[in-house]
Write a structure and sequence with these properties.
Elements (H helix, E strand, L loop, with lengths): L1 E6 L7 H14 L4 E6 L11 H18 L6 E5 L5 H10 L4 H5 L2 H9 L6 H16 L4 E4 L4 H18 L7 E4 L32 H9 L17 H14 L3 H7 L5 H27 L2 H30 L3
Parallel strand pairs: 1-2, 2-3, 4-5
Helix pairs in contact: 2-11, 3-6, 3-12, 6-7, 8-11, 9-11
GO biological process, one term: tryptophanyl-tRNA aminoacylation
GO molecular function, one term: ATP binding
Catalytic activity: tRNA(Trp) + L-tryptophan + ATP = L-tryptophyl-tRNA(Trp) + AMP + diphosphate + H(+)
Length: 325
């Protein structure tokens, strides 16, 4: 089975990125053909610094390696190194209704957040994402639940193309983590954890023990004082319980019993110590990778070569189907 997924090189990757996507990838690469890309073209749709983008791209590659993605088993490459992404996005845009794009939640959210930068790329973002996925004839796309709308549009575009021009694309399916697919902000627990928000609202995969303790200690809770999983009445504690459960590989009910007669401070201390322990191997591995910066560039170059071979075969089929060859 062919697996395809990726992450934008914007700010630091956090535990929500790991639990919602990367953790799935590590298991999937054992028995599947996996392709993991760095979505730098997508990152251009919001304000950014050119030098910072290059730095962040290499940091994403380092994160992939530090968390367990193996370049010997999986293809790792940068989106902009394969021109077929942009080419296919244009072709698919000719069969995608503008109304479908205007209804996308991400377009609405980012338009509100960056009112001075509502660009055509932001509107066409979902078409490029569909091109990313369809270009590699992906069967499954492991992503966070917040990306479900994009996956559904990619499926719609693939079906429409196949109906109009003949069977060309595999219709992909989203692969969503049942628990942890949507980790919430530490500061606003009714809102998804986002690397574009304040650093205090998320735990980076490479935060120091001191940073982890501080962020967890200041995480928003409530006045009920009971460690119970109740997303409606206690969204902050419910979010922290979810994080604890996933990293401890322990049922939430068991954690509730463990902290039944204990306060929030003790529960937060326990969570912080757990995260420090679980994230330490990632920090250590990244420090080791930092000693060999050329390794990251070599991985991207080799990955791009492999990705181009697949992409070119797909584009040949697409052009033939559309009458361009």
């Amino acid at each position: 089975m062919k697996i395809f997924s990726g992450i934008q090189p914007t700010n630091q990757l956090h535990i929500g990125n790991y639990l919602g996507a990367i953790a799935q990838w590590i298991d999937l690469q054992k028995d599947n053909e996996c392709i993991f890309w760095i979505a730098d073209l997508h990152a251009l749709t919001v304000p950014y610094q050119a030098k910072e983008l290059q730095k962040r791209t290499l940091e994403v590659v380092a994160t992939y390696l530090a968390t367990g993605i193996d370049p010997e088993k999986s293809i790792i490459f940068r989106q902009s190194d394969v021109k077929e992404h942009s080419e296919l996005a244009w072709l698919l845009s000719t069969i995608t209704p503008v109304g479908d794009l205007e209804r996308m939640t991400q377009f609405k959210d980012k338009s509100q957040k960056h009112k001075a930068n509502i660009n055509a790329g932001l509107l066409n973002y979902p078409v490029l994402m569909a091109a990313d996925i369809l270009l590699y004839q992906s069967n499954r796309v492991p992503v966070g639940i917040d990306q479900k709308q994009h996956i559904e549009l990619a499926r719609t575009i693939a079906k429409k193309f196949n109906k109009k021009f003949g069977e060309t694309f595999i219709v992909p399916e989203g692969l969503y983590s049942k628990l942890g697919a949507k980790i919430m902000s530490l500061k606003e627990p009714t809102k998804k954890m986002s690397k574009s928000d304040s650093p205090d609202s998320f735990i980076s995969l490479f935060d120091s023990p001191e940073q982890i303790k501080k962020k967890i200690a200041s995480a928003t809770t409530d006045s009920l004082k009971s460690v119970k999983y109740n997303p409606e009445k206690q969204p902050g504690i419910a979010n922290l319980l979810t994080i604890y459960s996933l990293f401890a590989e322990q049922l939430i009910k068991e954690i509730e019993k463990e902290f039944a007669n204990k306060g929030y401070a003790e529960f937060k201390q326990g969570l912080a110590l757990l995260l420090i322990k679980k994230l330490k191997p990632f920090r250590d591995k990244k420090e080791e990778i930092a000693k060999n910066p050329e390794l990251l560039k070599d991985i991207l170059e080799n990955g791009a070569k492999k990705a181009r071979l697949i992409a070119q075969l797909t584009m040949q089929k697409v052009k033939q189907a559309m009458g361009l060859v």
